[in-house]
Design goal:
MgtE N-terminal fold; CBS-domain; 3-stranded mixed sheet; 452 residues; mainly alpha; 6 strands; Tetracycline Repressor, domain 2; 3 domains
Length: 452
């Protein structure tokens, strides 16, 4: 697209919005046609719903399906809800089977049935096989459409076969899967090896036998981990009997990694990674109200603890001034440990064998930081209020709270994960409650015991 120069995504969005506002839809359509599906999806997510609908109508059907699959679930669902069955069928025709699996899971049953019935027998069987696996497993991520070869054929035969089906080959194809006559996985044939092999060599002579396939039942996090550890571009997926089911490519894994990263980031605020930035006001308010309510309950709990020591605070006003410092220090320290632990869970690096080591390490870090900052804060508070008692009191409270914060940050995510609660969503709220309550209890409790 040469008629307008873009310095960044923001300028592109602004220019497209300007074209829509001016009613120059032909120029807007040309702009969209020059972009990749992922770039169009980014534009759609960057504009409010009214403009989003206008832009969607300018997108060609042959790329509409690919654009849909690049959108977050919530934005995609909103567009699908506004489309009739004919429009959905039109945009679904160009999708690969793995993308079609993801799309079907968001559609009403009637439209799903129409899409399945529009497929030929082979594609229908592959689609139904993929739908039988949970979407967060290797079976749910895979594309059942795989190019396979037999070990007994020659390299020349394989090359001629690839030329005949070149339009069906994915641009991300780096390996061909070798199977026997029953469809059982044997190994892979790298395209690099195919290029340098002699034309009369058999596939069995140049194939790689030690390329481990992915079991269909493993979690998508494990899939991403294997791609990272082995620098994979694609990998075959097999069932428990070793029969080939499909292929996972790097673009699917990138989506998993991105979604996991967004989930961890958004979860800290109690939000979903799929939340539409321009979602309707009532929907956004309703979603956020839940975590605001949970936070309010925990705030009342912290206030109740403070209320238990009302008489102490009235007699020593300095306590009211210094209380937030104790709670804040614990909250920051606990959040650091909590984030580290959640990351370990997400990457499958944390297990029963090394969890105790992590706990001991975080306790040691908490104790060391507790002592260092207790001395710093104690000196400042002692000079401020001209009281050695206040100095010793806040130092002890900070040390106690940092130790509790370390324990909570290390143990809470694993506990939540075991009972089926997402640590990224609930961990921050619960951690704040613990550090506030323990901090206030330690600070005010010690003051009651030793200063009154």
């Amino acid at each position: 697209m040469q008629e307008h120069e873009f310095h960044n995504d923001e300028s592109r969005v602004e220019y497209l919005q300007q074209l829509i506002d001016e009613g120059t839809f032909r120029k807007a359509s040309r702009l969209l046609a020059a972009l990749a599906p992922g770039e169009v999806a980014h534009l759609l997510e960057s504009v409010p719903p009214p403009q989003r609908q206008v832009i969607w109508k300018l997108i060609r059907d042959d790329v509409g399906g690919d654009v849909l699959m690049e959108l977050t679930d919530e934005v995609r669902a909103d567009l699908l809800n506004r489309m009739d069955s004919a429009e959905v069928l039109a945009v679904s025709e160009s999708l690969d089977t793995d993308d079609l699996v993801d799309l079907i899971q968001q559609l009403p049953h009637t439209i799903t049935r129409e899409i399945i019935e529009s497929l030929d027998g082979q594609h229908r069987a592959r689609l139904e096989a993929a739908l039988s696996y949970p979407e967060d497993t290797a079976g749910g991520l895979m594309n059942p459409d795989v190019v396979t070869v037999r070990p007994e054929v020659t390299v020349d035969v394989v090359v001629r076969y690839l030329r005949r089906i070149r339009e069906q080959l994915s641009p991300r194809t780096d390996i061909l899967v070798v199977v026997n006559r029953q469809g059982k996985y044997l190994g892979v044939l790298a395209l690099a090896d195919l290029v340098i092999a002699e034309s009369d060599d058999t596939v069995a002579e140049v194939m790689t036998l030690d390329f481990p396939p992915l079991p269909a039942s493993i979690d998508e996090r494990e899939v991403a981990s294997r791609f990272e550890q082995h620098d994979l571009v694609s990998a075959p997926v097999v069932n428990d009997e070793g029969f080939l089911l499909g292929m996972i490519t790097i673009d699917d894994v990138v989506d998993v990694i991105r979604e996991e990263g967004e989930h961890q980031f958004m979860g800290r605020a109690g939000l979903s990674e799929e939340e539409d930035m321009f979602a309707p006001i009532l929907i956004s308010a309703r979603r956020r109200a839940f975590w605001l309510g949970i936070n309010l309950i925990t705030a009342f709990l912290a206030s109740w603890v403070i209320g238990l020591f009302e008489a102490t605070i009235q007699q020593v006003v300095a306590l009211a001034v210094l209380m937030p410092i104790v709670a804040s220090m614990g909250g920051i320290a606990g959040t650091q440990t909590l984030t580290l632990t959640i990351r370990g869970i997400a990457l499958n690096q944390l297990n029963d064998k090394n969890a105790r080591w992590l706990l001991n390490k975080e306790l040691a870090v908490g104790a060391l930081n507790g002592v260092v900052w207790a001395i710093v804060v104690g000196i400042v508070a002692g000079i401020w209020f001209k009281s050695l008692d206040i100095s010793l009191l806040i130092g002890a409270a900070i040390t106690i709270n940092l130790l509790f914060a370390a324990v909570t940050g290390a143990l809470l995510p694993r506990l939540l994960d075991r009972v089926g609660i997402d640590p990224a969503l609930a961990g921050g709220v619960l951690l704040t409650t613990v550090t506030d309550v323990v901090g206030f209890m330690a600070f005010l409790g010690l003051a009651t015991l030793f200063m009154l």
